[in-house]
Amino acid sequence: MSSKDSKQPYGFHTLAVHKGYEPDSQTGSLALPIHQTSTFVFPSAEVGGKRFAGEEAGYVYSRLGNPTVAALEEKVAALEKGEKALAFASGMAAISAILLGLVRSGDHILCSRGLYGCTFGFLSILKDKFNVDYTLCDMRDEESVTSSIQKNTKVIYIETPMNPTMQIIDLTMIGRIGKEHQITTVVDNTFMSPYLQRPLEYGCDVVVHSATKYLGGHGDLIAGIAVGKEDFLEEIRFTTLKDIGGILAPFDAFLLVRGIKTLGVRMDRHCQNALEVASFLENHPKVTNVMYPGLKSFPQHELAKKQMDGFGGLISFELKDGLEAGLSMMNKLELLKRAVSLGDVDSLIQHPASMTHSVVPKEERIKMGIADGLIRLSVGIENVEDIINDVQQALS
Ligand code: 3LM
């Protein structure tokens, strides 16, 4: 479809369905073939040498590239409006490979005060073992960002909305500060997907995803993907991806390509359902502190409207009677599943303090806004009245 792109750019849903693969001319296979191979045969010894030297294009070995994975990378790059994408075995493989590619011993990373638990865990490894320091900072305030920049700050790393508090950071501000200070800005866009937010359009440098979530959408795979400038990602491909080896398997790339075809329609439904569930929770006498960017009561509702094309499917809330009441409510659910992860067509509910963010020390967790009793609900695409009825019976 590339020849037509320049004449009349295709819309999001069209790119989601078609980009990255044309039915192959030999067989006409409509679905993307799964190139389940570890290695690729060279037509001659000389060609093999040239491919290794980077003097001739062509596949070599699936840890360095695979056609099924390449189709996925092309599709996600187009959706995120980036030059290039690079797929990984998990979101954490993507995040760790990108950060390892950007820093060296003695450098500093400035992070949002609010990060997925294992991202926080990886920062602790960098600090304890590799002398790469980090600071968590409240990035809702520009002054606090600029005053936290150090001479050795090489990366600004953020989540927006943050997992699980849904706090939002102004992407225009982060993109601008990164350019002004020549610091690479990395945005974890997992909670939004490219359908709802495209950080590169705001001047940020790199987007990372846990593709396990909305991109895959069906709770049947673990994957990660990074999007950004071609030169940078090719360097990552031939360093921290190749030499650590956290690559995506062809079958998982196939599942992702299939999942992404319906990303936009799924996200519309997630957003509609979540707004109704959030409004129900906000009006329930036993519930307090509902965090959903689509609610008018959400402190950053206006910023959410400015930079997000929808408010997503995640809601966090507390019960007035605290932790015990929250866990008891989770145990009474019949339709909603008690499970970590998010962005699946199934509604999933979890308790961050004891699950996704249990690796974050309590003092830091509280500073992030993750109270002991906080519950996170990933609203699926079921009939919304069934989701609400289940929550209502569990609360009563
Ligand atoms: C979770 N999150 O339930 P993988 N970035 C963000 C994430 O939410 C996650 C990752 C990266 C959850 C997973 S907790 C054991 C389950 C914003 C994952 C990491 O490596 O693909 O899991 O992505 O919040």
UniProtKB/TrEMBL annotation:
The cofactors named for this UniProt entry are: pyridoxal 5'-phosphate
Q: Which InterPro entries match?
A: Cys/Met-Metab_PyrdxlP-dep_enz, Cys_met_metab_PP, L-Met_gamma_lys, PyrdxlP-dep_Trfase, PyrdxlP-dep_Trfase_major, PyrdxlP-dep_Trfase_small
Signal peptide (from-to): none
On whether Nucleus is a keyword of this UniProt record, the answer is no
User: Any keyword Ribonucleoprotein?
Assistant: no
Enumerate the Gene3D superfamilies for this protein: Aspartate Aminotransferase, domain 1, Type I PLP-dependent aspartate aminotransferase-like (Major domain)
Give the keywords, sorted: Lyase, Pyridoxal phosphate
* A single MF term (Gene Ontology): methionine gamma-lyase activity
In short, the EC number is 4.4.1.11
Which reaction is recorded as catalysed by this protein?
L-methionine + H2O = methanethiol + 2-oxobutanoate + NH4(+)
Matching PANTHER family, A to Z?
CYSTATHIONINE GAMMA-LYASE, TRANS-SULFURATION ENZYME FAMILY MEMBER
Q: Which family does it belong to?
A: Belongs to the trans-sulfuration enzymes family. L-methionine gamma-lyase subfamily.
Q: What is this protein called?
A: L-methionine gamma-lyase
